[in-house]
Design a protein that fits this description.
This protein is mainly α and 294 residues long. It is built from ten helices and no strands. Helix content is 69%, strand content 0%. The radius of gyration is 23 Å and the shape is elongated. The two termini are 30 Å apart. The N terminus and C terminus are likely disordered.
Length: 294
Amino acid sequence: MSVRTNSAAFMAQAMNADNPHRETFHRFFECWICEQNSYLEELVSVANNHNPTENDDAVLIPLIERVVRHYEQYYQAKSNWEKRDAISMFSPTWRSKLEDAFLWIGGWRPTLAIHLLYSKSGIQLEAKIGDLIRGLKTGDLGDLSPKQMNRIDELQKKIIHQERVLSEKYAKEQEAVADRSMVELSNVVSEMIRTEDGEVDSENEEKVDSMLNSKKDNLEELLHMADDLRLETLKTVIEILTPIQAVYFLIAAAELHLRLHEWGKKKDENGTENGSATGTHNHGSDLHAHDVRV
């Protein structure tokens, strides 16, 4: 069986269960990230075999579409799981503490895609500056046209605005934890706990459940909006780029994601937050770094 069917098949089977285990999404993510590593190998291969003088869009475009569908699959599975357990997305067990530190509303900040694009563009520009000075087209991210740069700049402004709107919504949800209704209910329940029998009656238990469910629903909606923005940003960046540029961008995105995940897991396993002792050594991993220059 192809490895790439594993995460989709696993999640479909799990969601059909009456009460899937809370670690279901964790297992799905591990399958998905292994698939991402396989796609990375394909992307690197076509990039290394690319000939700027030949039109190989017939090879590049289908691969790009498959990789984008793989991201879509992830966000669809995540959306389905959020309906069951949205809160877990804010403190995911499948990510390392290092990754947790950089999360924005349950995932990567959308403007990160723009920063990634600019960083990789600068790296490739410096690597082939001689060719560009001689007027030779490199075709990679160091060879972005003025029109592309303008579109990326406009996209960045748009995404920054949308991020700000969602961040403000998230801030309001966080502040609402201390709104009047929550404070009143926490006091009522605390007073009941301090009584002789120390029990909370069913009426107030229902009030607690109702209030927390309402807040959970608001957070779930916010997660959906953030994930939609993440996927929209990814697709728009790819649409702006040429096929080979999109390949280089997807390589950079996968490498950053996989390596950050790998580094964070190593630090968690070593129980250290600094680079001392074994934490700085490369012990190897199931997700191997690629010895290529792209």
